[in-house]
Amino acid sequence: MRDMKIKFLNKGLVVAFAAIAIQACAPKLTIMEADLDVPEQFDAQQDSTNTADIQWRTYFTDPYLIALIDTALSNNQELNIFMQEIAIARNEVRAKKGEILPSVDVGAGAGVDKVGRYTRNGALEATTDIEPGEEFPEPLPDFVVGAAATWEVDIWRKLRNAKKSAFTRYLSSVEGRNFMVTNLIAEIANAYYELLALDNQLALVQQNIKIQSDALEIVRLRKQASRVTELAVRRFEAQVLDTRSLQYDIKQKIVETENELNFLLGRYPQPIARNADTFVSFVPGVVKTGIPSQLLENRPDIKQAGLDLEAAKLDIKVAKARFYPSLGISAGVGYQAFNPSHLLSTPESLAFSLTGDVVAPLVNRNAIKALYYSANSAQIQAVYNYERTILNAYIEVANLMSKEDNLQSSYDLRAQQVEALNQSIEISNFLFRSARADYMEVLLTQREALDSRFDLIETKMQQLHTWINIYKALGGGWD
Q1: Cα–Cα distance for residue pair 216/239, rounded to 1 Å
Q2: What is the DSSP letter of 165?
Q3: pLDDT (tens digit per residue) in 230-272
Q4: What is the pLDDT of residues 22-79, one digit of tens each?
Q5: Between 1.20.1600.10, 3.30.1360.70, 3.30.200.20, 3.30.460.10, what CATH number should domain 29-114+138-473 receive?
Q6: What value does the CA radius of gyration of the chain take, rounded to a whole number of Å?
Q7: Torsion angle in degrees (nearest 10) through CA of 154, 157, 162, 168
Q8: Is the predicted pLDDT of residue 16 greater than 70, yes or no?
Q9: Which of helix, strand or coil describes residue 101?
Q10: Domain spans in the chain, listed from the N-terminal domain onward
């Protein structure tokens, strides 16, 4: 009869467990997949040689620039802050791993208990037939020492998927750090070459001040000889003053650019070591863009977006597992006695327990559904972000490739313009001295020549910026 009752009870537990499992079934959702199709090539040539494979120490050859980048990679505060984010993500992985393993606690305790006479326990103690000298102590001490363990059996891989999701986000944070390194290197290189451009502009202005000052002296002599009027002298003086004021604007920009670099290097303002003479003669190397599919492996931001998407998919599995029953096991073993002298008596004072429980949501599952739907929306969001990051990377490279070609054509034409205007300065000065041209033609020619030289330096700086940014856009610099 007893065996029949046990079999009936076991069958009842199985049926109840099955009913709970059926009741706990999660709603069906469609997992959205990212579209990873990209064009086969950037231009007519399909060459897998990629500049992104070059390390930044080889790509940038200026020793002053390399020293600045080295300092920034050690001292930049934003980068160091992000390194702590990586440490936090790594510790999150350790925490999720700990949830999978059983939790074991060791402890000891002591207490005293006095029950009322007219209570169940008090009446029981009073009516128990105990020989003289063997009465219950009053109050009753209690001493215990032992270990207790709890463990959630990961039937539906909820805990393992949570750990895997945390590990994937840790890898994502590493790629985020790589993307920050890429941007930091590009930002320092851009600021450095902008500083060299400003140095060359300042030297050009000071050179023009000398030329214009010499022209002013000639005009003053011609005025004394009654060859020109006071108006010509004043116009030449005004041009010299305007050019002299221009140098202070450039000096201020130099200070601000130096301090921008110092901020990126994590230090207070100080002079930036550099060689401005290398700016004009420096010729950027040829950039090989490779094929678009290489962006998925070289760009840290794309890899980060892909890892975020993978983690979001795992989060859906974790949220789905919350609908199903969870099995928990708890156990304890130790010694317990009311007299310390008997605490370690074995087996008299040995105490142990072992329990298991199955828990599943049955009535109010709205909170679990909300988390499940939110996880699905986050996964769809991650898909769109992944696709957007890939598209943005491709467009960046395409724009910079076009800009590189157009800037080279523009630089060649501006160089010809500068050469023509330099010759026109000599011609206008000769004609002015021979009274075949008025002072306005000389002034206009000098102003146009100065502007054209400024434009040439500006175009050169844009070329270098494009050379740096296309390296970053291809995913170079972080390795």
Answers
A1: 9
A2: H
A3: 887 888 788 889 889 999 999 999 999 999 999 999 999 999 9
A4: 445 677 777 788 888 888 888 766 778 899 999 999 999 999 999 999 999 999 999 9
A5: 1.20.1600.10
A6: 40
A7: 140
A8: no
A9: coil
A10: 29-114+138-473
Q: Are 469 and 395 in contact (CB under 8 A)?
A: no
Both tokens of residue 232?
């010509």
Structure tokens belonging to residue 59: 């790509």
User: What percentage of the chain carries pLDDT values higher than 90?
Assistant: 49
The tokens of 137 are what?
A: 């102590």
State the Cα angle at 82 between 79 and 84, rounded to 5°: 120
| More confidently predicted of 217 and 251 | 251
Q: Alpha-carbon distance 20 to 161, whole Å?
A: 23
Packing angle of the helix pair 366-433, 158-224 (nearest 10 deg)? 20
Q: Which helix (H) or strand (E) holds 107?
A: strand 103-113
> 139 and 112 in contact (C-beta within 8 Å)?
yes
Q: Show the tokens assigned to 178.
A: 């790589």
Neighbour tally for 356: CB within 10 Å: 11
Q: What is the DSSP string of 305-320?
A: HHHHHHHHHHHHHHHH
The two three-digit tokens of residue 457, written as one number: 């330096």
